[in-house]
Amino acid sequence: MNSASVGWQCPECVKESAKSAPQISARRALQGATPIVTYVLIGINFAVFLVGLFTGAGIMDTGGTTFVRLALYGPLVGAGEWYRLITGGFMHDGLIHIGLNMYVLYFVGRQLEPAIGRARFVLGYFVCLLGGSLGAMLLDPRAATVGASGAIFGTFGLLAVLDYSRGVNPLSSGIGPTIILNLVITFALPGISKGGHLGGLVVGVAVGAVLFLGKDIRRQSSNERLARAAAVVLIGVGCFVIALATAPASPLLR
User: Fold this and answer.
1) Which residues are catalytic?
2) To the nearest 10°, the Cα dihedral for 115, 120, 126, 130?
3) Under a CB-based contact definition with an 8 Å cutoff, are residues 52 and 93 in contact?
């Protein structure tokens, strides 16, 4: 007999209780971990927004020196200002824009970051950001594009693939309906970068497939983790190179 919290149990009863006890997924078990990277990213976005306010941007719209120098704009990327493929993902068009994006980033980040680890989250986020920039270059390169939504759509894709890899239907976990709703908004409302959102989402799914499919991340060896991370880096490099190659050149802007 084994001692239990109330009375005694036979060994067979203990085994049966263990089998019938609900199993907590790794993602749920790690929910209490502090998503530090998510908080840092939110802080950087708000810091850039504040700098924009001090350089001429309005509280409810974009503009000013920071926007002119850092926003994603195809002709200037084609003229050599490659850094706009990254900096554009940290700028926002007013308080409502950044408020909504940062709320969604907090919502997704506090689930995804503890589940996959900070290093994977950082890598995935920036590769998805480049995927969003690539999408913007492909679909609407001559429109000035700002916002973290391309990277955030990528984290949607990462979370959906993570759920799928662990036997959870993304449609029932909540991330599937979230993706569908945001895609409807993307195509229903004017002034939204369709290329940025679609590019981020597609790259996020691709990155998730590389990182999570085939073997659970909790059972991957160190060498396998490094190999998968290297493959994700290659995806990011590919997005960057293709975005540069497809950006329209405009000598008149120089």
Assistant:
1) 149, 197
2) -100
3) no
Sequence-ordered list of residues with C-beta below 8 angstroms from that of 64, at least 6 positions apart, any chain: 52, 53, 55, 56, 57
The DSSP output letter for 71 is S
- Residue 116, Cβ density class (10 Å: 0-12 exposed, 13-18 middle, ≥19 buried): buried
Cα–Cα distances in angstroms (integers) from residue 197 to residues 11, 32, 68, 97, 177, in the given order: 55, 29, 22, 14, 16
CA dihedral for 27, 31, 35, 41, sign (positive or negative): positive
Residue 177 tokens read as 């309906």
Please check whether residue 155 is in contact with residue 105, taking contact to mean a CB–CB distance below 8 angstroms: yes
pLDDT tens digits along 131-181: 999 999 999 899 999 999 999 999 999 999 999 999 899 998 889 999 999
CA atoms within 13 A on the CB side of 164: 18
Nearest to 77 by CA among 142, 149, 150: 142
Q: What is the pLDDT of residue 12?
A: 58
pTM of the predicted protein model: 0.84
Q: Beta partners for 2?
A: 9
72 by DSSP, 3-state: which?
Answer: strand
Q: How far apart are CA 97 and CA 101, in angstroms?
A: 6
Over the stretch 174-223, which tens digit does the pLDDT of each residue have?
899 999 999 999 999 988 999 999 999 999 999 999 999 988 888 888 89
